[in-house]
Amino acid sequence: MKTRAETFAWNVKNQLGKVHQVASLEKVPALVRRLAEQLGLEPKAVVAAASDLKDINWKGLEVEHRPAGIEDVLGISRAMAGIAETGTLVFASGKSNPPSLNFIPEYSIAIVRESELVDTSEEVWAILREKQPFPATINMVTGPSRTGDIEQTLFLGAHGPRELHVVMVKS
Amino acid sequence: MAVNKGKSVALFATCLVDLWRPAVARAAERLLIKAGFKVAVPSGQTCCGQVNYNSGDQKGARKLARRHIMLLAPFDYVVVPSGSCADMIKNHYPALFGGDLDVQKTAQVLSGKTYELTEFLVRIARWKPAREKGAKRKLVYHDSCSCQRSLRIYKEPRLLLEAQGKYDLQALTGEDRCCGFGGLFSVKYGEVSSHMAGKKTAAITALEPEILTGADLGCLLNLSGKLKAEGSACEVRHIAEILAEEEA
Amino acid sequence: MSKTPLDFEKGAHEALGSATLQQALGKFQTGYPLLRARAMQSLPDFEKVRTKAARIKDFSLKNLEQLTNQYREKVEANGGTVHICETAEDARKTVVEICRQVEAKKITKSKSMVTEELALNDALEAAGMEVLETDLGEYIVQLAGERPSHIVGPALHKTKEEVAKLFKAHHKTRRKRETGEQLVREAREVLREQYFASEVGITGANFLIAETGTAVIVTNEGNADLCRILPKTHIVVTSMEKVIPTLDDLSVFLRLLARSASGQEMTSYTTLVSGPRGPGESEGPTSFHVVIVDGGRSKLLGTEQQALLRCIKCGACMNVCPVYMSVGGHTYGWVYPGPIGAVLNPVLNGFGTMYHNYQASTFCGACEEVCPVKIPLTKIMRDWRTRAFQERIPGLGARLALWLWAAIAANPFLYNLAAGAGIPILRALAGKKGVLKSLPFANGWMKDRVLDAPEGGRFVRGRKR
Ligand code: SF4
Fold it and tell me: What pLDDT is recorded for position C1?
């Protein structure tokens, strides 16, 4: 039997997402720097204003906490949950979580804690029902943006990100 | 085979077989006798009404259905050498008489004892052809949509052909795809139908079989006509004829 | 509504003669079943799940009014507006009016079959607004001035070269347009600015959830999300049968939809929108409207054919349909192609006009086997044929022939007489080879195909019993 985290990671990869595992949030900036370097991007990103992402030291990276604009290439968002069954990330819109972070930048990094993983979407609904008011926009993201509209061939990065990096945080 | 002794089977030949290839019905009759049944061919049987039914002519369909319900109901079993006509009697006759409960009841009883030929031989008669020796001939079996989807018949004809041991059964790509016959469809939408048949024959000829067989004469006439137009020499025969064939 | 059937055979003839279309369809025919089969491996209890899905839809349709009211109340409580429109005309007017009020000049739109049904783009353009389709397939079809040929893959019928030509003509820039990758990139860049420049975003919805007042929008590209987030006004245009009771019900459909549509376990983006941007949010529309269209669907409520409103527009039925795979989507002549079109088009656009949609089927049943909500598609096609026959839509000749056949076949004496005359004639016509190459009344059969003549004699007749 796979653990929930293993199932989640397996499904993210199956949906063409990339998975990274880190021990704690503090390790995220270094990972992002490394990724930016590998992708040949400037070390800068728009980052969700979630409190735990605001608190960390983003040394070596130029970060701004705001919605994404047309010029932004790297976005870092904070999922409220991950669904193991399908490798899906769930984002609830709010003051600190603008949905554009998941759609405008060409490269998307999503952070989820392993403790936030659930087995099925039904469990997510149970969590969401507790939220008042109900979030105006909930984005369920499964892998990067894709299209099969040209000769039935799969291309990534149709309108949304061409790469989705999921960072699973252990603690 | 003792269980079969004395039970009566009405053979419903179907109009297409009766008019186009009576040899198929003769072969089916021989098979049923070999399997130990008392075979009757109720006279006055014609067409099950499928053509009218599928064209939206319920009145005409009901007229023919009523006639055949009365004709076929008295027997222990009804056997049909065609998936689509068996399906008509089994699954559609009862629905035709929603307003007439007496006929519907009889139709329901009839439905429960009506079988397509290969299904009947395997599931009810538990009969198998005698094994024959000699070189095996390459054969393709075509599943009709009525057999494979409506009646869920897939293994039965294959079991029979394998038991006979005379044929080398080929696996057909796209075997679940319709051959394009569809009764009047093949005439009304001839070009589309012929194109569909062409996809099927392309898959068949790729296997270079000597024989093509199946349980529905409509499909077989369609494929035979297409194969001939394409210049293929592949022989096309109904499975009843193949199974009833004995060593010379 | 006109009673003259749209010409199916002409369209079919052209489609069968188009090498590029046949190639695209051929690719699809072999590709899709494999993808679907693979995705189904992770849903071993498909049968159970689809039965459940069908039940949820039946329940929803039975309680449609109450659920729609609940949906509307929730949306209104969330700060949005719901418009319920009986006819296509009402719906077009409503959408145009909303766009006028916010002085829209540019509208970005994501794929929605209901808006195709409404011919909404034409109405908006007539009102002086520019409408841009953003789903890549829809965008291509829009540039070409065509209609989608498939409900999930609208530009299935277009080759890469054709797309490159279209882009060259419309974008007026010099770029390399050799690979699919380059074309996807170009569309992305061109459309990107448009989202930011548009005042209104229009999307469809796959489901409406009564419990929370939520519209669910499913895409792979992410274009619907940009239409949702960036313009100041978001309009969801959808049809009445999309309402389901709860979020948990949604989970059931999500397990089926992507697997059936494209052979994925889940589409990339499933978005739940419940109103305008929330308090404190810096993004998302400030004004949110949902337009729910009846368009003739309510005629089906409570009838024997109501099941066809269970449809979740996954496209699986056409993906396995042998007729669709031969003639492509455009031949059907209206918005919905394939088996679902065959049963739905007549309801929405007339049984006369859409005559061939429900006639051109062999009843092979492949569609029903894959339909994730178990719609008895062939049964409904047959029901429509029955209805058409009663309404005398088939020509007199066709009706007379059926009547004659039933009359003869119900009378063994006549039957034997006719057979006794007919069989020898056919055999004589066929000659030594026993093959017929032409036949009055049946020349359709003879298209690149011959017919074996009867072998002679009878089985039923002349038996001593
Ligand atoms: S009829 Fe069934 S298979 Fe066809 S689109 Fe609708 S839900 Fe999908």
Answer: 43
